[in-house]
Write a structure and sequence with these properties.
67% of the residues lie in helices and 0% in strands. It has 10 helices and no strands. Helix 6 packs across helix 10 and helix 7 runs parallel beside helix 10. About 5% of the residues have low confidence.
């Protein structure tokens, strides 16, 4: 029997946030780095020299440190919304791979194709990766919601690459927006989403 992507609308439905320990860990890490101020940001942020200097922690911590408390709060709110949207769509393993691969895709993409970016912080690129990954699974299920998300995400990425950040984005986060990170993050999430679909077909796990 084909399962509905989203739960039925009724007063008994309560969001479960099954991955809340991971969400709390991300939020706590971001808050601790924010409390560390400029020294913590300089230690954690993405820098091109991280590859050459073997400062490998930056490849992940860059996505936990933020420009401001407002930047952190916005990204965490978006993360919670994305989790609610996809909690019954992405398994925990797939979700975790999407986060890690998206983060590494951003680091690699910036290093190879945007050498002028001297530093980068924030979770927004990874969030784009999670949305991309979940969207591919919804498309596999022939969900109308998946089609809408695919159109919306594609339109946003195209806008950013041609015309720059969505209006008011920079002012809301308190600094410049590296839109290339959104593109690379979405590419990483797409890779995980496609591999997950192929894996389901290979092992007969189609729903």
């Amino acid at each position: 029997m084909k399962r509905s992507v989203f739960p039925k609308t009724d007063i008994a439905w309560i969001p479960r946030l099954r991955r809340w320990p991971i969400l709390v860990a991300i939020a706590a890490s971001g808050a601790l780095l924010q409390l560390g101020g400029v020294p913590a940001a300089n230690w954690a942020r993405y820098e091109p020299g991280a590859f050459a200097d073997l400062e490998v922690w930056r490849l992940l911590t860059a996505h936990l440190v933020h420009l401001s408390w407002a930047h952190l709060a916005l990204n965490l709110a978006a993360l919670a919304l994305i989790e609610l949207l996809f909690e019954d769509v992405l398994g925990t393993l797939e979700w975790t791979f999407a986060v890690i691969v998206s983060a590494l895709a951003i680091d690699t993409g910036l290093y190879l194709f945007d050498p002028d970016v001297r530093w980068y912080v924030g979770l927004s690129g990874v969030l784009h990766g999670l949305v991309a990954c979940g969207t591919w699974e919804l498309l596999r299920r022939r969900s109308g919601v998946g089609a809408l998300l695919a159109i919306g995400l594609s339109a946003k990425l195209i806008w950013e690459q041609w015309w720059g950040p969505v209006p008011l984005t920079a002012s809301s986060v308190g600094g410049p927006v590296v839109v290339a990170a959104h593109l690379y993050g979405a590419a990483g999430g797409t890779l995980v989403g496609i591999l997950a679909i192929l894996g389901r077909r290979r092992f007969g796990a189609e729903q």
